Automatic annotation (TrEMBL):
Record's protein name: Golgi integral membrane protein 4
InterPro entries: GOLIM4
Species classification: Eukaryota, Metazoa, Chordata, Craniata, Vertebrata
The UniProt record lists the keyword Coiled coil: yes
Keywords: Coiled coil
Coiled-coil intervals: 5-60, 90-142
Organism encoding this protein: Mesitornis unicolor (brown roatelo)
GO CC entries: Golgi membrane
Keyword Coiled coil part of the UniProt annotation: yes
Entries under PANTHER family matching the protein: GOLGI INTEGRAL MEMBRANE PROTEIN 4, GOLGI INTEGRAL MEMBRANE PROTEIN 4-LIKE
Amino acid sequence: GAFLYSHLQQKVRSAEALAQKYKQQQEALSAQLQVVYEHRSRLERSLQKERGEHKKTKEDFLVYKLEAQEALNKEKQDSMNRYGALSSQHKILKNQHEDVKKQLLDLQLQHNSLKLEHRKTLETHSQKYAQLQQEKDSEVTNLQDTVFKLREESKLLRKAHQEVHSQLLSAQ
């Protein structure tokens, strides 16, 4: 009986030691589990916070994206309007340029025609001038001959007059 009692007591002590060991393990596991729960709770709060921030960031981004898209569309519309205005202005200037080119061609043709006409007129005038100069020289020469002849005739008439006057004086 004592042996059985001693054996049972040893088994009880061994079971109590085992129970104590399991209790310590349970307490350690419970403490670890508490740490894990707290960590999980912190992570969940952090995750909720991150989700909130992510949601806010996503909303901000969508607002920014919408504003950027509107600004881009407005800028695109403005650019298209400016392009249209510049394009029509370019067409107007191109047409004006073509008109000016035509006017320049017409003026060049007119200039060349006038230049040719001027040259012809200048040649005609030069010929007429030379002819008139020649006629004038010829007329001057003729007039000089006539003057010379008239002087000679005047001398002869004076001589004749002198002789007639002398004869009249002699006759008186």
